[in-house]
Amino acid sequence: MHVVYPAVVSALLFSIGVYGVLARRNTILVLMSVELMLNAVNLNLVVFDVWLRDRLHSGQVLTLFVIVIAAAEVGLGLAIILALYRNRATVDLDRLRALAEFPVPSPEDADDHLPENATEETAGQASRASAATGPTRPPGRDDTPEATP
Amino acid sequence: MSWVLVALLVVPLAGALMLLVPYGKGRLLRAHALTVSGVTFALSLVAAVAYGSDGAVGMRLVTDLAWVPWLNLRFHLGVDGVSLPLVVLTTLLTFLCFVYMCREGGNGPDRLPRGELGPGRPRALVFTLLLLEVGVVGTFLALDLLLFFVFFEVVLIPMYFVIAIWGGHARRAAANKFILYTLLGSVVLLIGLLFVWARTGTLDMVALASAHGAGMPRSAQTLAFVAIGVGLAVKTPMWPLHTWLPAAHTEAPTVGSVLLAGVLLKMGTYGFARIAIPILPEGAAAVAPWLGAFAVIGIVYGCLACLAQRDLKRMIAYSSIGHMGFVLLGFATLTPVGLNAALFGNIAHGLITALLFFVVGGIKERYGTADIPALGGGMLARLPHLASLLTFACVASLGLPGLAGFWGEMLALLGAFDPAPGLSRPLFLTFMVLGGIGTVLTAAYFLVMLSRVTHGRPTETVHAPLLAAVGPAETREAVAAAERVTEKVTADAEQVVEETMAGGEDSGPVDTAVVDDTGGAMARRDTEGARGSDSSGGGGRARGGRVRDVTPHELAAWVPLVVLILLFGLWPKALLSLTDPVVHGLLGAP
Amino acid sequence: MTDVPSYLSPTGQEIVFLLLGVVAVGAALLVVTTRQLVHAALWLVVCLGALAGCYLVLTAEFVAWVQVLIYVGAVVVLLLFGIMLTRAPIGRAADLDSRNRPVAAVVATATAIVLVTVVIDGFRTAYAPLEPGGGSAREIGSSVFRTWVLPFEVLSVLLLAALVGAIVLSRTDIRGRR
Amino acid sequence: MIAVTAAVILLPFLAAVAGLLGSRFPRGARGGAADLAANRRAALIAIVPAVLSMLLALWTAYVSLTGTGVSTGTLDVIPTGSLPISVGLLVDPLAASVAVLVTVVALAVQVYSVGYLAGDRRYPSYSAFISLFTSAMLLVVHAADLLVLYVGWEVMGLCSYLLIGHWWEDRANSRAAVKAFLVTRIGDVGFLFGIFVLGMAAGSFRIADVISQVPQMSSGTVVTATLLLLAGVAGKSAQVPLHTWLPDAMAGPTPISALIHAATMVAAGIFLVARLHPVFAGAGPTLDVLAVAAALGMLGAALAALAQDDLKRVLAYSTISQLAYMAGALAAGADGAAILHLITHGAFKALLFLCAGIVIHTVGSNLMSAMGGLRGRLPITFVTMTVGFAALMGLPPVSGFFSKDEVLVSMERALAAGPLTDAAALLLYGCALATVAVTGAYATRAWLRTFFGERRAVPLPESATPHTGLAKSATTPGFPESTTPHTDAPEPASPRAGLSELATPHTGPSVTAHTDSPEPTTPHTDLFGSAPSRTGGLREAPATMLWPVIVLAVPTLLLGFTGVGFAGAADVHWGTAALSVLLALLGAAVVYVVWRGAPLADPARVLGPFRVPLERAFYVDSLYRALFVLPVLHLARLVARTDDRVIDGAVRGSGRATLSLSGLVRLTQNGNAQLYVTAVLAGVLLLAVGAVVLG
């Protein structure tokens, strides 16, 4: 069998997984996309094992390991998602903005960037706080994580 | 004898490291600090003695070890007439700072209390200051460009913490400004040093200096001089790169201010004398007019800014800018006399400004403020000795002949009168005239300040901040007294005055016409303090229960400075004979 | 590898593989584009099943069965449970895609182009003759328990850790230290 | 010889050090008895070296004048990298005779001060400062190197600052002290630059070398140098345009006025010109400038003196006027005459000030409107002060007559031949003659208003005089009398008043006129009547104050006869002398006539509308204030603002700019993990593509 066929299939699967990870909002869907990417890798491993006639069967064994780890990963990932759901009542990725530099005023318009007025206000705070010196601690950082429902 | 220089670095470093072992508090910490700094000072004196005074040129007591061989970096130490006085000044000032920190009473954060460790974190302060000393002494001793830079940088961190931890209200901002600004300068300095390295292939200052810029074209020298000069000028500080200084001085604790003004600023000017001018003579010649212009602007500008200041420490900080302007003017002339002037001015400024900051620190501790209007007047009546010392320091700082401040300024002006060949004489004559105007303005702001603070009637003083000048227990008592007095001011006033009169007729009188609530409280506190002073054993507390005049510890810390100011003022040869031969060598002049 | 057969005369195995591959890729596309959560999980089953078929064609039978058992049997069920537990909407939902979608499409397409180009370029001449029995349970089993026994044991520890972690995470009565 | 001279200089210096450190040593005690003890010790420390120094100076002068002439000695040479500074001393007749003047006046002032400031808590520092002052002046006199001279020159400025501000409780005194220091410092900067020019041109800072090198210098150099030196001279000797500090300096204790305005500081400038006379002689334009400044100064100051009501200010303006005489003589090329006048003026002005001190001490006010009719009460003072005034007017046979005659003759000669241009010489001579007349007028006026007419004051209790230094109570400064009822407890006033007096309550309003209150006040007659007085009425001052006066009166009377020979002039020039005496008497007569008409009123009233400008000394102070002080202060505020807003603003602005830039970058950090991953993958892709394409 031409190695190109499985290799192309796995590449396409992987890209589809990438798209899923990047484009899907629901965390469980993201998890599924991750599975797709893992499977793409698995396919590659198997093909190369066959192609190279590895006497130790490292490719296939590694595939087995990956499958096992993937299962564990899904279990853990789901546990995390559940914990997240308990705390935030949502599993939508783009509402989980605890890492945001600026506080997100409301979940509705918290998509890609902040509304203009919020930026200006915080910038103003920053400049006032740092009037005396150079950079200081960014303001409003500590009220972000728990405050947003 | 070359071990002396290494010991100068090792002793304070070891002293600082020993503090990491938690072994003792109070007295032991005091003894430790005094011993370590005292030994270091003694070592520097040993170095001075070993240096001799035969006037020969060249480095002495050299230590030259491989440091990072694959980069050809060397641990190269040495001392000559330029660095020796600065080393001694550094160790002396550090020692005096520790002596000052042993004082009793007061509420300054920079104290080494006799008993338990207080909130001031004295152990950390001692550690920091010793580290600072290592850095400064190393800077003055280093003869390798990168070693110099390393020590130059080592200084910043302890100073940052001194300001940021033990400083005043706005200390964080001041400390941030200090470190960012000076780091910026250091980066430029490093670029300049590396540029020199790249062009000449060596980092050895002695070799570079004796080459007098051979192997570097004029344009490259100019570039390197500008980079190194900017880096050093930030530290010096030169106008307009000075704005970190007032903020840092205003917020730093007394010992921080003393070391900052007395020693740290000298690192910048020392760099000019040691690196910029000897290594890059053509670059220096190209940049000297600009350097002189900035220096002169700094002189006049600093003086004018001083005239408009309200805060004493801030004023002295600005006066430092003016004085360092004279030092830079001396360098800019590129003449032996100018360099002599700059080096003399360095030492003189270190002594005088250190004394000024000490005294002002004492004032701030007693009055709780350094705001000139809030101080009122009549300090000569209230605290005669302190005010006399302030007067002395101010007079020395304004460049009175016979005191150390004069010679540096006069010689700098003399150098500007006759600058090195190749420099525009009319330009430097203009600089000289502006510098002369600067001396008048210097006298003006110091005298006006003295007039406002030391002269006049003590009753003009705002008394309330004085409550801050006592210990916590006394403060409570004073507050209580204030409340009592506020209740029945009129009834108490006469009695208070009588008590005051009975307590001590020497100090400035309290004019009952202006005894208001707080004034009454103050007098009250005074009298009560007088009664309690015997038991509290405050030996420095003046008779009559006023705020203490100069205490023995303060006197012990200040008198050496006074003596040295007088000595160098009356006998400038003591310093000039050290620097003069070296300066000729640095300039390659006969 | 001079004896590479022509691409123009595919063997039966290749045709089967390609068909299964098309199914897998199409199902994967549906997984990431469908508007219904549960459908996505089901399309995932199709995709993984097709992949298992691929493994079979590639003579890796043991891996194929494991794939069916663990992925199709366990993982997808787990995912369906997850969907239920998070009270995800059953039926069509409009907002399963985030606003990042266009960018994601661009990046994914670019990834695909790069990968496919590289793969085709790299494996144009590679040919793997298929010999049955290479991936039988015996072969793999002896390999795992002879050569790879240490990683295998480490993996079991990992699984245990994952188990414990999942329990800790999902139980509400275990609190972190304050 | 040099060693002796060094001792002359060092003795007062050591006295100063000892007085400052040792007066209260070792106890540092304060309070009545301790203060008195400290004062006694300080007086001893101050006076004994002064006596020794004077004796040595006399011996030096004797040796120098009779035989050896010039001798120099160099102690050490200080390398500067440029011209070395040679620390050396110089003795020649000029220096030796001025040194005698300095030491004698200093001793007189020290002795006088013992009485004048008895009980002042700050007497030890005061006497130490006088010693330091003396030492500095002697250094100026004997310095062999211009920079060494400059050291003494500046230290004097400091001492005058400290001494004028002796009663620093009063802001006005403090201001006067600052003003004195600053105005002289302005001149001193020019002086320093002049030294640079001279030294660099001559290749040495040694005075002898400089003088010997003058012929080799270009005339431009000499003129520049001398003009710059002249700035310093004008500052120290209170010449136009830097004279304004001198009248204000009267805020100091009266002995200080005597010291500064008679013997030392103001003399230093004249002395310097004489010292460098060969240099100045080679600079014609400078002499013209000096002549014009002197001419304007002498007449203007004399006119200003005519209108003052404050006795000390009268003397101050007369000092400016007399110094201008000397400067005029120097400009006319007669350094001998100038020095002669310097010495006689030193004697008689010190005498006048010390007498004025007694008068003020007794009356308790500086204002002449509060004096009058003191002739009978203060007979000794009256006599001595009359001698002083006579010398001031230049009446024979007092010393002033001879010296002023010399000066006038030299100016007259300058008309015919000399370094001056004709116009300058004419102006100088004319002004000098006019000044003689005006001098006669104001001296007479002061004399009459002080000692004749009706008594306008009864004595103050000395405890309440403003000079006690401690007396803070009554001296709410500048208050019009009787408006401040003092209800407070008895003050711990001056120990001079005796602690026992503390018990005596002030029954009446005890207010004194303030030292510096410029406006004439109403008579004090009824204000002090009830105040208790230790002395029980007007009486002569204590002996320590009288003796110096008497001693000083002797040279004032007799110095002229010895000086005739000294100045090198053969004898008195009777024509000029007659003219000047006539003019002086004319001025005196006018004043007398006016005064006779209304003995209580001020003769200055006939000046009419000119009086106010004269009293304000032609508004020079206001002019300077508007021209220099205010602009500088505005500039200072501007600079402070600039520093805060522009320079520091730039620094802060850079910080703020960095922050806002970082704010831009932070916008991407919106918390969306998908975006992050997208960016990471895109980056990886780019890298991969880049690696493939470029590699």
TrEMBL record, chain A:
It catalyses: a quinone + NADH + 5 H(+)(in) = a quinol + NAD(+) + 4 H(+)(out). One of its GO terms (cellular component) is NADH dehydrogenase complex. InterPro entries: NADH_UbQ_OxRdtase_chain4L/K, NUOK/Mnh_C1-like. Residues 139-149 have a biased composition (Basic and acidic residues). Its EC number is 7.1.1.-. Residues 120-130 have a biased composition (Polar residues). The chain crosses the membrane at residues 6-22, 29-52, 64-85. One of its GO terms (molecular function) is NADH dehydrogenase (quinone) (non-electrogenic) activity. GO terms for biological process: ATP synthesis coupled electron transport. It is a multi-pass membrane protein. It comes from the Bacteria. Residues 104-149 are annotated as: Disordered. Keywords: Cell membrane, Membrane, NAD, Quinone, Translocase, Transmembrane, Transmembrane helix, Transport. Its main location: membrane. It is found in: Cell membrane; Membrane. NDH-1 is composed of 14 different subunits. Subunits NuoA, H, J, K, L, M, N constitute the membrane sector of the complex. Belongs to the complex I subunit 4L family. NDH-1 shuttles electrons from NADH, via FMN and iron-sulfur (Fe-S) centers, to quinones in the respiratory chain. The immediate electron acceptor for the enzyme in this species is believed to be a menaquinone. Couples the redox reaction to proton translocation (for every two electrons transferred, four hydrogen ions are translocated across the cytoplasmic membrane), and thus conserves the redox energy in a proton gradient. This is NADH-quinone oxidoreductase subunit K.
TrEMBL record, chain B:
The keyword Transmembrane helix applies. It is a multi-pass membrane protein. GO terms for biological process: ATP synthesis coupled electron transport; electron transport coupled proton transport. InterPro entries: NADH_Q_OxRdtase_chainM/4, NADH_UbQ_OxRdtase, ND/Mrp_TM. The lineage of its organism: Bacteria, Bacillati, Actinomycetota, Actinomycetes, Streptosporangiales. It comes from Streptosporangium saharense. GO terms for cellular component: endomembrane system; membrane. Residues 142-419 form the NADH:quinone oxidoreductase/Mrp antiporter transmembrane domain. This is NADH-quinone oxidoreductase subunit M. Coiled coil: none annotated. The chain crosses the membrane at residues 6-24, 31-51, 82-102, 123-141, 147-166, 178-198, 218-234, 255-277, 283-308, 315-335, 341-363, 383-407, 427-448, 555-571. One of its GO terms (molecular function) is ubiquinone binding. Pfam families: Proton_antipo_M.
Automatic annotation (TrEMBL), chain C:
It catalyses: a quinone + NADH + 5 H(+)(in) = a quinol + NAD(+) + 4 H(+)(out). It is found in: Cell membrane. It comes from the Bacteria. One of its GO terms (molecular function) is quinone binding. Its EC number is 7.1.1.-. It is a multi-pass membrane protein. GO terms for cellular component: plasma membrane. The chain crosses the membrane at residues 15-33, 40-58, 64-83, 103-128, 148-169. InterPro entries: NADH_UbQ/plastoQ_OxRdtase_su6, Nuo/plastoQ_OxRdtase_6_NuoJ. It is an enzyme of class 7 (translocase). Gene3D superfamilies: NADH-ubiquinone/plastoquinone oxidoreductase chain 6, subunit NuoJ (1.20.120.1200). Keywords: Cell membrane, Membrane, NAD, Quinone, Transmembrane, Transmembrane helix. Belongs to the complex I subunit 6 family. PANTHER family: NADH-UBIQUINONE OXIDOREDUCTASE CHAIN 6. NDH-1 shuttles electrons from NADH, via FMN and iron-sulfur (Fe-S) centers, to quinones in the respiratory chain. Couples the redox reaction to proton translocation (for every two electrons transferred, four hydrogen ions are translocated across the cytoplasmic membrane), and thus conserves the redox energy in a proton gradient. This is NADH-quinone oxidoreductase subunit J. It comes from Streptosporangium saharense. The lineage of its organism: Bacteria, Bacillati, Actinomycetota, Actinomycetes, Streptosporangiales.
TrEMBL record, chain D:
Residues 462-536 are annotated as: Disordered. InterPro entries: NADHpl_OxRdtase_5_subgr (IPR018393), ND/Mrp_TM (IPR001750), NU5C-like (IPR003945), Proton_antipo_N (IPR001516). Keywords: Membrane, Transmembrane, Transmembrane helix. It holds the Pfam family Proton_antipo_N. It is found in: Endomembrane system; Membrane. Residues 143-411 form the NADH:quinone oxidoreductase/Mrp antiporter transmembrane domain. NCBIfam families: NDH_I_L. This is NADH-quinone oxidoreductase subunit L.
